[in-house]
Amino acid sequence: MTNESAGTGQDLVQSFDSLSAEFSAEIAGLRTEEEIRLAQARYLGKKGKATELMKLLGRIPAAERPMVGAAANRARETIEGLVSQRLSRLEEEVLAAELARSIDVTLPGRGGCGGTLHPLTRVRMEIEQIFHGMGFEVRTGPLIETEWNNFDALNTPAEHPARDMQDTFFVEGGLVLRSHTSPVQVRTMLAGPPPVKVIAPGNVFRRDDDATHTPMFPQCEGLHVGKDVSFEDLKATLIAFVQRFFGSQTSIRLRPSFFPFTEPSAEVDASCFLCQGQEPARSGCRLCKGTGWLEIGGAGMVHPNVFAAVGYDKYDVTGFAFGMGLSRMAMLKYGISDLRLFYENDLRFLQQFPSG
Ligand code: FA5
Q: What separation in Å is there between the alpha carbon of 298 and the centre of ligand 1?
């Protein structure tokens, strides 16, 4: 029945009754609450079929209207009743499906994924342990240093060309992001008289950025000052260290070098622990690139000017110092080709270093 042909009241009553039957057939095939609610709206909503029929009420004789109104109410109640019946059945079906799922409560839990120590932390801890065994104490210093501690006291005055090699980040007020851990030497000696025997691990900063240089990297300083501390002691200490860190076959090579704060100075190389410096493995060695040696840091005897800067008697004491790059050492120990991997926090990389 349409707006144009209202028909009689009896026709309208019949239309309402058949609407209920139509809805009943439709709802039987619906599977979700959303489908049911949409169907309900198609019948009882603002533009629903029942609402449209109600608009015809005004066109029939007044005497027949109560009968039609009653039929409309009946249809509405039937439709709403069917909706709520269907919805509660649906709820029961969902519950029954949940209950039918078999759960094996005896299976072991999945557990969380535990964190592990970062490879650089592991290397630092291992180095601390090795030097602790040789009688070194661990010291630390601030990352933002005075220019004096970072350069001047280390025999590197403002105009010294060696400052260029460690070009760094300057902060206002004569402060710098420390470019090496050597200022901890100065702090340690200013803090008390000799003898001192310390290592100082920590991060340092430089204007560097490539596969083997990062702008921030960890170093470990070593300083031993006392009566008659000799170059021989330095060499013995470094040999003992590399043999514990890289393996007992490892030896070292000292190459003459220059650092303003040590004299004489040397670059420290460890023999490549992968090829042992032996042919035929050496020529194809991916770690040492065929040289048989791996550079691990710098070292030397403390310069008398450094003793003078911290108030130590340069005629009374001698000392050695060294500084190693920890990320380079980790790179060598674990065979890693790009230093930047340490700082990318890629789980696929980090998960290869489970805590031991
Ligand atoms: C120094 O920093 C000296 N302070 C070391 C020293 C201490 C010498 C005490 C004598 C006595 P050098 O600039 O060479 O030296 O750095 C030492 C080590 O840090 C290098 O051998 C290398 O392993 C590491 N290193 C240097 N620059 C970077 C960088 N940008 N990224 C990662 N590692 C670096």
A: 6
